[in-house]
């Protein structure tokens, strides 16, 4: 028997009554819970009460899983057969996710209608923006949508304050799309503004950092860790694109017990979710729409359209309305595709098994 003083208790890894209940079915079968900390193709690393374990999903798991999103990802709790001495495990089951940050799988031909889970069982999402050339409100709206869908609490970090002279106008622009979301200004390089960020980092709280490549996510984590763990890349000055240095997601434990997930930059954030979330993000537009003369107003040429009037008065920005329409359209297409896929699947089942 070897003793590993680095072994963490389940609660320290974010375990709660929610998972305890989900784990009941596995308990009597000799499985132990483990939390996925890294993934290299199909090889996973996880932390458990037996220490760090490494292994793959079983053949049976693979065989029974049809959806990409039902495979484990960083942040997930899994039921494993594990051995702390050899450090090996086999993954037999995935516990239901308490929260999940998802996007639509990016596919060139748009043939795939599937969710990709970015990180799971997170409490807080740091949406990191670069105050240099990266600042983009449209992209932020997409991150906010994904964050609201996830069930975790979004917080905005505007990094690289040392490279921006006009921070206020950018805060104003964010306030227009969300009046309440916490916004923090930092310079990870200059180690400024990070004490406020520290307050979010509580023991057993899981935080995922998202944002474009090069905005400073890894630099922020390194600064919070107090040492260089995550590789950072320098930004080419003319286009503000960081080199892709973080290729894999990783869950790390900070000295104070907070759990932090670094992510590679997401180039394209396809919406995955439903219109209700969009409605709560664009409440002003929904309220206006309810004031149009016609119930089925499409806000184009109809008379007494509250949306058109608000745009003319300058109370609603044309651009904001445009974003709303665009996202609404994307979600409509998504819903129809999901529907179609479900129908095909049931048809396939019918073909294989007949009508029961
Ligand atoms: N000027 C400035 N540069 C920063 C700041 N934070 C990070 N950087 C630089 O931006 C580049 C990309 O940072 P990195 O942490 O790799 O970004 P990531 O892709 O989001 O993880 C690196 O060269 C960092 O040194 C900051 O606050 N100010
Ligand atoms: Mg990085
Ligand atoms: Zn209208």
Verbal overview:
The chain has 356 residues and is of the alpha/beta class. It has three domains: 11-94, Nucleic acid-binding proteins (OB fold (Dihydrolipoamide Acetyltransferase, E2P)); 100-262, Rossmann fold (3-Layer(aba) Sandwich), CATH 3.40.50.300; 275-353, Ribonucleotide Reductase Protein R1, domain 1 (Orthogonal Bundle). The chain has ten helices and 13 strands. It has helices at 17-27, 59-64, 137-150, 167-177, 194-198, 217-225, 275-281, 283-289, 306-313, 318-353, and strands at residues 32-40, 43-48, 51-57, 77-83, 88-94, 100-104, 115-120, 124-130, 153-159, 183-185, 206-210, 250-253, 259-262. The strands form three sheets. Strands 10-9-8-11-13-12 form a six-stranded mixed sheet. Helix 4 (167-177) links the parallel strand 9 and strand 10 (183-185). The protein is globular. The N and C termini lie far apart (54 Å). 34% of the residues are buried. The site of guanosine-5'-diphosphate has 23 residues, from helix 6. Residues 159-160, 162-163, 187-189, 211, 213-219, 232-235, 242, 245-246, 265 line the site of guanosine-5'-diphosphate.
């Amino acid at each position: 028997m070897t003793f590993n003083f680095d072994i963490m208790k389940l609660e320290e890894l974010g375990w709660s009554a929610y998972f305890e209940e989900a784990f009941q079915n596995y308990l009597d079968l000799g499985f132990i819970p483990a939390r996925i900390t890294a993934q290299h193709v199909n090889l996973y690393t996880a932390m458990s009460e037996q220490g760090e374990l490494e292994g793959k999903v079983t053949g049976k798991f693979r065989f029974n899983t049809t959806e990409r999103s039902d495979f484990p990802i960083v942040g997930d709790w899994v039921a494993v057969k594990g051995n702390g001495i050899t450090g090996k495990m086999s993954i037999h089951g995935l516990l239901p996710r308490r929260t999940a940050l998802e996007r639509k799988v990016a596919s060139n031909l748009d043939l795939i209608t599937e969710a990709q889970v970015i990180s799971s069982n997170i409490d807080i999402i740091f949406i990191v923006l670069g105050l240099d050339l990266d600042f983009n409100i449209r992209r932020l709206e997409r991150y906010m949508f994904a964050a609201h869908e996830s069930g975790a609490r979004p917080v905005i970090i505007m990094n690289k304050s040392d490279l921006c002279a006009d921070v206020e106008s950018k805060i104003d622009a964010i306030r227009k799309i969300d009046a309440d979301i916490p916004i923090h200004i930092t310079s990870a390089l200059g180690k400024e503004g990070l004490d406020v960020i520290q307050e979010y980092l509580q023991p057993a709280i899981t935080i995922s950092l998202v944002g474009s490549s090069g905005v400073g996510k890894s630099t922020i984590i390194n600064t919070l860790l107090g040492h260089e763990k995550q590789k950072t890349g320098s930004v080419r000055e003319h286009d503000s694109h960081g080199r892709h240095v973080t290729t894999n997601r990783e869950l790390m434990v900070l000295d104070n017990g907070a759990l932090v997930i670094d992510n590679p930059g997401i180039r394209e954030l396809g919406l995955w979710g439903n219109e209700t979330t969009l409605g709560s993000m664009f409440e002003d537009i929904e309220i206006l729409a309810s004031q149009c003369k016609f119930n089925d107003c499409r806000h184009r040429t109809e008379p007494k359209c509250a949306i058109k009037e608000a745009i003319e008065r300058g109370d609603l920005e044309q651009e904001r309305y445009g974003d709303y329409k665009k996202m609404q359209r994307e979600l409509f297409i998504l819903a129809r595709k999901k529907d179609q896929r479900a129908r095909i699947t049931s048809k396939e089942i019918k073909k294989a098994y007949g009508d029961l």
